[in-house]
Amino acid sequence: MISILLLLVGFVLPLILIAFGARHVLNAEQEEREDMIKQVYQYAVAFITLIMVIGGGVFAFMSLADYVSPNTYIETFEEYKEMRTNYPTKFENEEKQPVQLSEEDLRKQYDAKVHQQIENSKQRALNSFIKSIGWIIIPFPVYIFFQRRINRDRKAKQ
To answer: Choosing a second label site near 74 at 20 to 30 A (CA), which of 98, 113, 137, 148?
Structure first.
């Protein structure tokens, strides 16, 4: 959803800005046209990279929240026990006689499964956090560069 929003804002908004500025550009002289196109380009790049940095920050926050409080579905012990006793997977011998596990063994297996699911969820959240940091680190210098260029051009006009 957010990716689609970034795509729309990243590509559609600059096109709209260019379309509205096109009327003005047609009436301006050549040097003014080039300056106006340059400004629209600089503002568009600065805006797009700012949106990317903000999106990366939101994704990073969500990933940290998932790491701190993993959102995993964990079946109850009763459901796990029922599944293991009614549909066993381990067999004693070739005659396919199910192995009956004690409740203590089932509880140990269940606890290990729950722990593993939580660890997997945390690992996915950490991986997502690292990717989100990339959405901040990569476009941020581009944003700073274009923002400084816009400010420099604005001061030069004054």
So the answer is: 98
CB 129 within 8 A of CB 60: yes
pLDDT tens-digit readout, 18-64: 666 555 555 557 778 888 889 999 999 999 999 999 999 999 999 99
d(CA 142, CA 51): 12
Give the H/E segment covering residue 1: none
Of residues 55, 56, 50, 49, the one with CA closest to residue 130: 56
Residue 146, classified by CB atoms within 10 Å of its CB into exposed (0-12), middle (13-18) or buried (19+), is buried
Q: Which two tokens stand for residue 77?
A: 């012990």
CA proximity to 16, closest of 39, 36, 44: 44
103: pLDDT confidence band, cut at 50, 70 and 90?
confident
Beta-strand ranges (E) seen in 1-158 are none
* Residue 136 to residue 147: CA distance in whole angstroms: 16
Locus of tokens 């297996």: 109
Q: What is the pTM of this model?
A: 0.65
